[in-house]
Amino acid sequence: MQTTSTMIAPLLEARNLRKTFPAPGGAFAMGARARVAAVDDVSLELAAGETLAIVGESGSGKTTLARMLLRLIEPDSGELRVEGRDFLAASGAGLRALRREMQMVFQDPFASLDPRMRVGTIVGEPLDIHEPRLGRLERRDRVTEILRAVGMGEDALTRYPHEFSGGQRQRIGIARALVLRPRLVVADEPVSALDVSVGAQILELLQNLQRDFSLTYLLISHSLPVVAQLATRIAVMQGGRIVETGAAEQILTAPTHPYTQSLIAAIPVLPVNIE
User: Fold this and answer.
1) C-alpha distances in Å from residue 197, one per residue of 47, 74, 190, 204
2) 77 FRET partner, CA 20 to 30 A, in 5, 117, 137, 274?
3) Which is it for strands 51-55 and 35-46: parallel, antiparallel or unpaired?
């Protein structure tokens, strides 16, 4: 039996995270501006190598949670640990070291890439921040290598985002996230802005990259059919809280919470024409 000291800590662990925002419409309560909890007492663990999908309708708190897990926004309260290290207490060089291990792929491939920058500069920007001593040729080689890994040629280096399709732009965004060789990638609705066929290609790419780069994924999505292709575990969010969590197969085939059951029931079934 393993003792607590010899057990492997989760790659990412959150305990009782909470985040509130001012209520819309200028509502006041007891003389103070009323606040709404976007994330309310959320706890989760993410083991190295797995894909945890956070699923829920728009406004359920998924993206706020994802951004808190990366400390892009700070929680009001709670704990956040990376392999047992206190992520919320980290600062300076320690914070930069932790952040380079965790990168994000954004929802909108049109808005997430600076239209004034060439692709080589966009993908290489994280290297400028985290590896400033890298030589120009070595930097170019690193960028070219990761572009090829996502299915883009070297000719993309000198071109601008507007010259590419939505799917190609998302590949560029994925390359930017992977250029530092992170351990954890948070993908926030990575295919929701893409056509179904293009989205399927991106999901297949993410699967292949997970295998090739030993990645851990946190996948944010409102679509159960999307997460069914990638997730090993699913956590369902409603109103800022996680209402059900479990293995992907169990959640998708035998959900226990009424909200999860309603999400499953809402998945459209294509009609079959019988001659």
Assistant:
1) 30, 36, 13, 11
2) 5
3) unpaired
Residues of the chain falling short of pLDDT 50: 1-6, 270, 273-275
Q: Assess contact for 210 and 222: CB atoms under 8 A.
A: no
Tell me the residue range of the domain where 161 lies. 113-181
User: In this structure, is residue 246 part of a structural domain?
Assistant: yes
Torsion (CA) 55, 60, 66, 71 in degrees, nearest 10: -160
The total number of structural domains in the chain stands at: 2
Query: Shortest CA distance to 39 belongs to which of 220, 252, 267?
Result: 220
CB atoms within 10 A of CB 259: 17
Residue 231 φ/ψ, nearest 5 degrees: -75, 140
Q: How far apart are CA 65 and CA 62, in angstroms?
A: 5
Encode pLDDT of 49-96 as tens digits.
999 999 998 889 999 999 999 999 999 999 999 999 999 999 998 888
- The structure's pTM equals 0.88
Domain contains 192:
yes
Is 26 domain-assigned?
A: no
Residues forming beta bridges with residue 241, ordered by sequence position: 238
